[in-house]
Each structure stands twice: as C-alpha cells, then as structure tokens.
Amino acid sequence: MTVPARVLFVGPVTSPQTGGATVKNGLLVAALRERGARVEVVDTGPHGAAARLRQLAALVRALTRHDQVLLSVSRNGAVLLVALLALASAVRPRLRCSFLAVGSSLPGTVGRLHGAARRLYLRCLSRCRPVWVEGEWMRRELEALGAGGVEVLPNPRPPAAERWDPASVAAGRLVFVSRVTPEKGVERAMAAVEAVAASGVEASLDVFGPVEEGYRPAFEAQLARHPRTRYRGAIPQSRVAGELAGAAALLLPTTWATEGMPGAIVEAAMVGTPVVAAATPAIAEVVEDGVSGLLVEPTDVGALADAVRRLLTCPGLAARLGSALRERAASFTVDAVVSRLTARLAAEGWR
C-alpha cells in the first residue's frame, strides 16, 4: 500500500461537541499515522472569530511546509478553504490537494451559487483532486451542477468485536445515538416509542449523545413528557458498539439538512444491529428498506411507530435485517476507506 510520506490535514478534529466530522477526521488522521504518514493537523474545530483567525494563520504557515493537503470539512469552511487552497495551488503548482466533503452540504453550496460565482467555485474545486463525497447521490448532483473529478468515499468506522444479540428484541430497548437535537429526530423517536408502548408492546428508548447547545431545557421538558425515554449522556465512540449490540434496534428519524451517511448507521452495520431510520438518499444507499433495515418518512411519527412495532413483534425479521446490514459493513471499515483513499492519492502523484 502506498501511503503519502507527509500530509497536511485541515479540518475539525476537536470540538466542544463531538460530531460526525470530528469523529471521521480523528479516525482518518490516526489511520494515516498508523500507516507511517507524518500528518500535521490544522484543527478547524474550535469556533469563534478569534479561533478562526488563529486557524487561518496556522494554515498559511503550514502551507509553506507542505505540498500535499487533505481538506476535510462540512459546510463550515467549504467555500473559503477550498478557494484558499485553489489560490495556493495556482501560486505553487507542485501543491496537491484533495477535498473530503463531510456530510451532504456541498451540492447545496454549489447550487446556491449562480453565474460567475458558480464558475469560479467550480474552478476552485477542480484544483482538489479528487473531491470526495459520502454517497453516489451527492456525486450525481454535483456532476449535474458542473463539478468534475467527484468520487465516493464512505464515512468510515472501526470494525466492531461486538455482535448484536437477537435476544434483545424481547426487552424492547431501542437506542438513539447522535447529536441530540430536534433535527436529528430525537423527539419523533421518543413519541414513536410511547405510541408503541401504548399499543401493548414492550418498548423503551435510551438516548446517547451530546445535547445541542441551547436545546437542553426543551429536551428536559420532552423527557418529562415521555417517561419511556432515558437520557444516558454522551459516550465515547469506544462504547457505541456495545450499546448497539444490546439494543433491539437503532432509531434515527433524522431530518438534518446536511446529513451525509450517519456514523451511527455505519456503527450499527458493524455490529449487525437492526435499523429503523429516515428514508433519506444517503441512508438508502446503505439500508435497503425491508431487506437490511426499515426506512420511513422521518416526519411521520405514526409510520415510525408502526415500523418499530413490526420489528419488535417479529424477532425473525429483526434478525434478518441485522444480518443483511452487517454484510454491507466491510466497505465502511477504516482500513478499507483509508486504503481506497491512499491508493487514489498515489494515482494522483502523492508521495
């Protein structure tokens, strides 16, 4: 395997609230270092004007020392940092950069630009080879908007030693693992579980994840109204697989506007835990409704409750869904993703 000797990695690695980008970037940086690459990080996680100025200054200094740059950001910084790297590569032709678009915001970012602004941004994107997105649907949308050199790189997670326990279906304990915010679907998950329990089927919900800033009072009020839901707090990634292994299913009725491939779905696949989730384009690329999970319109609490009830009352169905989902896991392991990334960069001349 050809691994770049030196890499400048630009993106959020730490943040007050750990999210998908920080987890993904932390895994990528660690994996590159394990393979022998010397990786310098410009961490864009801390927020605020002063922090942004420090990050910009650190990036400018680092660009004087590096010829190979991996940019891995979501909507925050996707325009400014791509433009900055494009300018740097125009001034220094030997500078190589590649852009990992975290989440699904990039097609919307390009789509909101028009005329000369879009042409200029697409030209900047063309300096990043390749541009990586988390799903085929995003690649197709970007190509329809005029972007070239777009390829798919899955959202990685480490393989799990834990395996889902089919006996957990009888207990009816479901889990929500994500940032805790209405857009991620936590309130709909809570309401659906209450409806299932009201129909006579044993069901409860454990919620794991950091509560979005400013949402805690409203969330605590929701907990008071939904007695079958317990908030278990934010947990390290190393504990996620164990919680999934002992759950009847993962619930994720997300409507997050820039949701890419949710890491929790990938982690469920690693363990073989059944999934009841939103029928979004990104999730549907991994979870096939009725085959490797149950997908519903995320705003329809009744449909979500029906799907949960169906899974809890049909243990054989739950086992089949979990097994089929786990068969998809191999392509999402950190090793598989980083091997694909480094092989493609080597083809672009990274050394």
Describe this structure in words.
With 351 residues, this protein is an alpha/beta fold. The protein folds into 2 domains: 6-154 and 333-347, Glycogen Phosphorylase B (Rossmann fold, 3-Layer(aba) Sandwich); 168-331, Glycogen Phosphorylase B (Rossmann fold, 3-Layer(aba) Sandwich), CATH 3.40.50.2000. Helix content is 45%, strand content 17%. β1, α1 and β2 form a beta-alpha-beta unit. The mean pLDDT is 95.
Question: Summed up, what is this model?
Answer:
The chain is an alpha/beta fold and 351 residues long.
List keywords for this structure.
15 helices; alpha/beta; 12 strands; about 350 residues; six-stranded parallel β-sheet; Rossmann fold; single chain
How does the SSE layout of this entry go?
Blueprint: E1 6-11, H1 20-34, E2 38-43, H2 49-63, E3 68-73, H3 78-91, E4 96-101, H4 106-111, H5 115-126, E5 128-133, H6 136-144, E6 150-152, H7 168-171, E7 173-177, H8 186-198, E8 204-208, H9 216-225, E9 229-233, H10 237-245, E10 249-252, H11 263-271, E11 275-278, H12 281-284, E12 294-296, H13 301-312, H14 315-326, H15 334-347
Parallel strand pairs: 1-2, 1-3, 3-4, 4-5, 5-6, 7-8, 7-10, 8-9, 10-11, 11-12
Number of helical runs? 15
Total individual domains: 2
Query: What is the string of SSEs from the N terminus onward?
Result: EHEHEHEHHEHEHEHEHEHEHEHEHHH
Q: Look up the CATH topology of the largest domain.
A: Rossmann fold
Structural class: alpha/beta
**What's the Cα radius of gyration?**
21 Å
